[in-house]
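Tutorial sheet, problem 5. The two components below are modelled jointly, 695 residues in total.
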Amino acid sequence: MRRFFFGLILSTCLALGYVQQRVWLITLGYRVERLAAQRDDLLDQHRVLHYNVLALQSPVILDERLAQRDVQLTPPKAIEVLPHRLEVNPPVPAWSGVTQPESSWWQQAWKQGSRWLENGRQAVAEPTREEPR
Amino acid sequence: MLTAAQKTRVALAIMGFLMIAAALWARLLWLQVIQPDHWVSIARRQHVQVLELPAVRGSILDRNLRPLAVSLRLTSVFADPRHIKNPVLTAHQLAPLLGRPESHLKLQLSRKERGFVWLARRIPNQAASRVRAMDLPGVHLVMESQRFYPHGYLASHVLGFSGLDMQGLEGLEMVYDRVLKGEPGWRWLARDARRRGVGAWDAGTVAPRDGLELVLTLDTTIQYIAEKALDQAYRQSHAKAASIVVADPRTGEILALANRPSFDPNQFSQADPQDRRDRAVTDTFEPGSVFKIVTAAVALGTRAVRPEDTFFCENGSYQVAGRVLHDHQPHGTLTFRQVITQSSNIGVAKVAARLGPEPLYRGIRAFGFGDPTGVELPGEAAVTVKPPSQWSRPSMTTIPMGHEVAVNALQLTQLISTVANGGMLVRPWIVREIRDPSSGAVVKSFGPKVVRRVVTPEVDRQLQDFLTGVVQEGTGKLAQVEGFQAAGKTGTAQKLEPNGQYSHTRFVASFIGFIPVEQAHLSIVVVVDEPRFPYYGGVVSAPVFKRVATETLAYLGYNHGD
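Model answer (structure tokens):
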């Protein structure tokens, strides 16, 4: 009799565990669906915002807006264009932060390390190196 | 103690229970083990749904990876009218958000015989959020993809457009539809009694394969420069149409291609079908004097004529082969070089007389006329050049000056690029790469295709000298670019009337040229169809060349003397 009751209790526990597992899976399923829908919404919003940025950068849109404000732009003359690489003579000292001289590997490592430590506290503004066309 | 009768009743009851249990077990065994398929299929139909996962159509990018065409998902709103209790109130609530007339929505929502009606498709995200927040019974939202072209009309003829079902209908969207559209995926989705998704944690999923990206040889900025200059000429000359092609003669890459009239592919359905035609590719015309480059090349190549040879140009009027030839201004004796720089029809007819039909025909074919250029754009007209056996008596005077032959703007680009390129014919092309958007890996790349050498470097140098003369002292002075030496040829071709006669009021004004002469970076073809007076190629089209060349060279960073 004891064995019978023990088996009954064990099988009941197993059955309840199984049911609990199924309920838990269904609950998780709802949550996963909700989160997936949220993710899709956010991705869609991101794509739309990215598209808006692209559209605003379009020369067509910029031209229309300038025309609306009666701004007439003309290409600059050669003499008005600054060359890509400006050389300053005498050179500005590196500690001034105005120039970015070529640095050795340990200076670059030091800079990376200090940037990592100060991450979030200080904005780093550096000229981007333009790829040769 | 039980009596015998009671024992019998208990035994009968137990037997009855056992028999019922056995019957239930047997039925259970039948349903669960022996014949489960029928009920399982019914249950699956109720609880499980196959959900298609649409693929994102690949973007089209310019040479600097700036998007020219992108796909976005927007919300569409539909309704099940059977579950709408108050169509009037629902229509009143939705009309301002969906931007649809209230009466139209009311009519749609009142169609109780239908279980599905569209209320609005692809509405803005903000409106969609507000509709979602209202949670109206019977009103549902679904995401649908739409193609967007961030630069509007820019390069619209090249890109084409795709329809509501994201099927490419014109331009590169159509030609590369299979590459761009990708393959949809699917997954099993379990649903509860309210038809909400429960997830598919124990079912199969096949992820969609998004479409690949096309990288073009076009440059958005050069395209903009070209379109703006072309648009100005098109409007000022009140022309019927206009086309421009800007290419790199060294590689054959098309940097810009535009036509007027144009259209905005974001609203392609509102555009006139005529405005959607890629005239630079599909339309053929008699090129007129720009074709004299071919005659000059053949004359120099066969050594039938030397640059210093002189021709009497009959003071502007010359009767030959049963017709009278005219020059746009009378000339006396001109050297061969001057014949080209001053674009004398009479002089060219006399040059051609020294050539004969066969060498001229072979030269025309060598420059690629009579064969399609093979550019990836759809609808390139099949153009044939008549063999000499089919030439009429006046053909030997008209063909050398660009009549009785039909070309398109791309073939003229090929012609001028060959001269700019030292005599090598390079095929024009516009698709640079096919890329995987997820990894950025190049799936397939395309490159320049050198077809053949057409003229020797020596002959090419002489041709370049002739064409430089056209810009410096001839009919193309308005194409001069400050700080650079340009070369080119003007053309003003009379159009054929329906009665077969050449018109005196309808012309095709063109200019084809390259810059800088010493090492050409750009070849530019400008064709203006039916401009009003002044209708000369040197007046209408040459300034477009000048403006595009000036601004493009500045954009590309070429300084004077580079």
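Marking note: DSSP finds three helices and no strands in chain A. Full credit if you identified this.
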